[in-house]
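Predict the assembly for these two chains.
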Amino acid sequence: MTLVCVGSIAFDSVETPFGARERMLGGSATHFSLAASFFTEVRVVGVVGEDFRDEQFQVLEERGINTEDVERVTGEKTFFWRGRYDYDLNTAHTLETQLNVFAGFEPRLSPASTSAPTLFLGNIQPELQLRVRERAQGVRFAALDSMNLWIETARDSLVETVATVDCVLLNDAEARMLAGEPNLTRAARRIREWGPSLVVTKQGEYGAALFTDGGFFSLPGYPLEDVSDPTGAGDSFAGGFVGFLAAHRGEEQTEELLRRAMVYGSVMASFNVEAFGTERVLSLTRQEIDERFRAFKEITHFEAVPFEPPVHAAV
Amino acid sequence: MTLVCVGSIAFDSVETPFGARERMLGGSATHFSLAASFFTEVRVVGVVGEDFRDEQFQVLEERGINTEDVERVTGEKTFFWRGRYDYDLNTAHTLETQLNVFAGFEPRLSPASTSAPTLFLGNIQPELQLRVRERAQGVRFAALDSMNLWIETARDSLVETVATVDCVLLNDAEARMLAGEPNLTRAARRIREWGPSLVVTKQGEYGAALFTDGGFFSLPGYPLEDVSDPTGAGDSFAGGFVGFLAAHRGEEQTEELLRRAMVYGSVMASFNVEAFGTERVLSLTRQEIDERFRAFKEITHFEAVPFEPPVHAAV
């Protein structure tokens, strides 16, 4: 079932302790849609400049992603981000941001996009997310990502937008900040009280957690010895998670289905960080995805055998 | 099977956003042995002052803990720690430390302790840990905890001591610091190359991870809305983990057994933080422990059903 995503499409220059790359294809919509394309049909909504060429469009289209709703503005440049990570790969240091075409971005949805049943609102201004949400009349399941910038500068409109979606995905620090609550379980409960039935907290190398009416689920990060570039990990997670759910739209959205979606999100994020930019995800095979899904089962499984206390024990 | 633990026995004064307590029974050996006492016979090795009364000894002895090797020094005072936690309950702020009797602590092991098959070296000077390890001739499984203070001030003797044990338990930041390696998976591998076959990293509210020859296992923290006092959580984890393994000494130490030990460690840590000091653990019942063990299964379980990609997908 079709999944529409709106977000940034960018060129990223990234430096980490393990290397550097100039002007890679990046942005939240790019990482999201590439990950989601392994699970369902994806339509991407965004804006690019004249420097965004056929070869970049082809990267998306070769993954079956529909780019009909990507506006190309002649005479202007694509959003550009330059960042650095030190040994603490959890923290991105922004060195340069050129909004370019992104400054005046007004998402346009074709009829095929407004009627799609699943929508992902990538990390852009909450006002834009809200307008897209309102236009997307066919949506049965909408998910939203955001960031500290919007919590600090546009909290009210972010809270208003959050109330219109079914699922919020945030870093755990951002979830605490948005809810104004240092305890993560309470923070997730507060956000869910505003409307969304699901809250997913992304915890970097510590994995991710899911808060629902039915309970709580948590999954560790995949233990990698070589992490090259964490840029886009959160969007790849969202792509796996929402993409898997979009593929199962029409089925009952059970806790079990949501948990498998969490695993696929974690699988896609774990591949994303193994190489720079989109490199690893573009080379992925279905078999590798399935193998890592099984690996997540292996690293989290234990037998629920009760302990038999020795005779001496006081209790 | 008997488990011997050596560590600090203290009075703790603690303030958190949720309350304050003066001169509670605390210390690494106290929290460890109380948690372990739900699983196996425990003997505690430590030193206290004249202000440590029968009522404190009784707290331990009522849990079946043998205090024969706790030396009581007349005319001196017990180790005292005063600390504060702010809303970030992961970070303890030390306000006051009075080493008192602990300054000249020389652990003495009775014959019953030197012949015990399982040993836990709580967070004390590495030189003392090493001497205890050497004296404990009957030991078949020794585990060690440490902290940033010793990594900074006594790294060489800590590394020497680590080489003599089977299992190291550390906070994840401390494991990275000790190994000099920012990637946790690599850090654990390096520590294991020094000798221990097991490395357990404690990750506060994010749970804990186990690194072995056979692989990797990780478990989230239990989602609690009310955390009163994290003091002793790491020692309670160690008590559940090592206590469970001590109870199964003589059986084959399979990955499956180690994973269940990790769950019992997490269970004991999650109870510890629900109230101040030892309050919650002292009121625990076997039934509550078993219920939370099952709850950990519930919050981590997912079905390993493979994804069937829709027909359109490129891969």
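DSSP finds twelve helices and 13 strands in chain A. The mean pLDDT of chain A is 95.
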